[in-house]
Amino acid sequence: MTEPTGSPFEQSAPPPGCPAHAGGVRLGGLEYQQTPAQLYRSLRREHGAVAPVLLDGDVPAWLVLGYSEVSYVTGHDELFARDSRRWNQWDRIPADWPLMPFVGYQPSVLFTEGEEHRRRAGVITEALEGVDQFELARDSGRIADRLIAAFAGSGQAELMSAYAHALPMRAAVQMCGMPETGTDTQQLVDDLRISLDAAEGDDPVAAYTRVGERIQLLVKEKRERPGADVTSRMLLHPAGLTDEEIVQDLISIIAAAQQPTANWICNTLRLMLTDERFALNVSGGRLSVGEALNEVLWLDTPTQNFIGRWAVRDTQLGGRQIRAGDCLVLGLAAANTDPQIWPDAHVGPENSAHLSFSHGEHRCPYPAPLLADVIARTAVETLLERLPDLVLAVEPEELTWRPSIWMRGLMSLPVRFTPVTH
Prior knowledge:
By secondary structure, the chain is α+β, with helices and mostly antiparallel strands. It has one domain (19-416): CATH 1.10.630.10. It is 45% helix and 9% strand. It has 15 helices and eleven strands. The strands form three sheets. A six-stranded mixed β-sheet has the order 1-2-3-9-6-4. A three-stranded antiparallel β-sheet has the order 5-11-10. It has a two-stranded antiparallel sheet with strand order 7-8. β2 and β3 (59-64) form a beta hairpin. The protein is globular.
């Protein structure tokens, strides 16, 4: 996503007729990109669990910061629903608004409600349940080996592009029945990245259109020649989804499998390479990859904020008056670090009650989190096994985060190691 300029603490005049947003804070700025936890603390101190914020173009919204408040919003679809056509700001939103891929209504499972959502989510759940987790782990390990072999002999690598992004992308498209490699697949992944997390000069709306066209072609191919893949299982499901519904839902599945999992892998590698608790060798009692993966979901979750929910009627939340049609941004990262649930700032490896996969009926459909865990765990374990003396090639403080309020991921992760020749 493109970011508004200016300080993250910059106050702005409220839009007409919106007195609640007189203290609205623009979500952006360099300080926020590098240390968003500071912004969340500041917002919580000043505004409480629900803060008035301004999105791109100074469009007002509410950022839900509290753990219990995010849980409440996501658990009460009758008050805070997913159909964005309720939004009371549409007259202010241009067609090329950077967040349009997220909020523009589409006939996708993401925007459905009630019985229709249960029907669509049920198809996705059953299609994903058909994925053999042992087979996925084996495929992910094979993809990891091939990616590592491409740079192992050089003794250095930039892991974001050469490994962390490439691996879940190839695993996800393979699960859906696309070839693991090739120009076509690479173009799809590039367009997914742009639509989810555009850099300056990128066109997220155009990229999202190209994603839809490629998935449309995949569905057409699988309609003619079904196989043992997620797309074919969705097409053959007795619920009888239309091709257009399947296209939209596949985009949701692939996008959720690729970008967040890539950042989960990279954020975990960063933690293990910079935190001395993970630096000891195995015989010295190094904390496990599983513990690192879980800690990242609590403290550096890949999906920082999610837009959003729209108020069905006038209501109250966290002491705020929410009007019908107001947009609420789910502050997943802020909720995970809410001092109300972590008064001692301690994250236990056994605790997985984080909100990184959201909560309620619209959370990531089971078993998607398990499949993401298989891919991420295999990626990290395989890399550390193949390159046991892996270290950062720069000082930890030199690592920079992507300029996004939505995804938490590094710009790059340069490493060095003893060259391995096969």
